[in-house]
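Q: What changes when T3D is included in the input?
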Amino acid sequence: MADESLVLTANNGSVRTLTLNRPASLNSFTSAMHRQLRPALEAAADDESVRCLVITGAGRGFCAGQDLNDPEVGSNVGQVVERVYKPLALRIASMPIPVIASVNGVAAGAGANFALGCDLVIAARSASFIQAFSKIGLIPDCGGTWLLPRLVGRARAIGLAMTGDKLPAEEAERIGLIWRCVDDAALADQTMVLAQHLAAMPVKALAATRRVIDEAMKIDYADALSLEARVQNDMGAQADFREGVAAFLAKRGAKFNDR
Ligand code: T3D
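A: The predicted holo structure follows.
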């Protein structure tokens, strides 16, 4: 159906939640879903009232990666990655606000790496992460080759990618692949507490923090220190910095507005 909502949008104060909504197929990505997800991400980026974005899945899965029934599969896999998954990963990495993946169930293939590319990954204890690519003769995409070794080191990255084994959320937390694993029943509440907390923070500085940390991994120490100085100069000129210092000195709560 052309107008079927494959990506649901909900607002809770300044937190926006996008829910991938193809539960019968574990929210695997189709072209139609991508056509709804991209504008939804743009809308969250453009809407000044949104200060934190949460991405989750409907039903028992988070996202099982590329829908292998989609007519596009097999036509030109590299083109799909270049045209769809690369811009998706880059969009997440450049959002002007913090992005939380609230992983409610299995996250496989591009679905796993889509989650891992978010700023913070909070997962239900019953959730799992699977680099499913190797089982169908592909390599990790949607940022997997870049993210995995940085998150958990080369040995674990290669182990996860080659075996395609299911990694339970608890283990994912233990090895540093994700931020936190919580009881299933607590996931929605814990996600919202975290999201509201981030939304009340100086989000412009949070987005700059992500950008500089990502950039710092590609440059040497001296260049990273110079980059810190340049970006700190920019942050120091923002109203949020003045407000943060004023609130601290006045012993009151800060109200941050920059975005
Ligand atoms: O063009 C390109 O391909 C390039 C891009 C590639 C990026 C990628 O993401 S490649 C990797 C694609 N994903 C996978 O290979 C994962 C495939 N799915 C699975 O291995 C398993 O479904 C899971 C381990 C994720 C979950 O297993 P389980 O036993 O909990 O559930 P299930 O019974 O396998 O799945 C439930 C339903 O979802 C089932 O449909 P049915 O039989 O009830 O009608 C299953 O077919 C469907 N489903 C799950 N994943 C996909 C899917 N349908 C289409 N595509 C999927 N990826």
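Observations recorded in class: The chain has two domains: 7-199, 203-250.
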